[in-house]
Amino acid sequence: MSTTKLNMRLWPRLWRHWIHPRQRVSVYFPVLALQQLTEQIARSEQRHTGQLRFVIESSLNTASLCHHITARQRARYWFSHLGVWDTTEKSGILVYVLFADRAVEIIADRGINTCVDTREWQKICNHITQAFQQQNYMAGLSAGLDELTELLVQYFPRKHAGVNELADEVILR
Hints:
globular; Diaminopimelate Epimerase, Chain A, domain 1; 4-stranded mixed β-sheet; TPM domain-containing protein; 173 residues; TPM_dom
């Protein structure tokens, strides 16, 4: 593939990321709504042994785009960076949104992945993405969290009081 064709393919993605700075994306994810989602995460974790983190990244920098960094790669970065992999029961889950690409990824730790099929995660990602297509951003994340909760209650119900190992706060960058 020639450099020209490669560059022509990159331009639409570059443009999407350049027009979605954090301050513009924060309109779709107001502080109050993010606080409500944080509270919903805390309530969810009282019902199961999973540890949930949500990251909404507005866009990637130009260097990352030129290196063809995908939403999945960024999700893996955040999974590691936030220590989602480092829970006692290997029960961490990251829900990652790359807003400029309208991409949603769920990364689960090995304790959960042994029981839950990856198709379940993909189904939840698809539901969130469908809500995003209708510009129902917070409703999509909230409904996705409800689906995650039901899945985790089914496989990993809380049997005793537990420790909250990971912060519940939603990260918007």
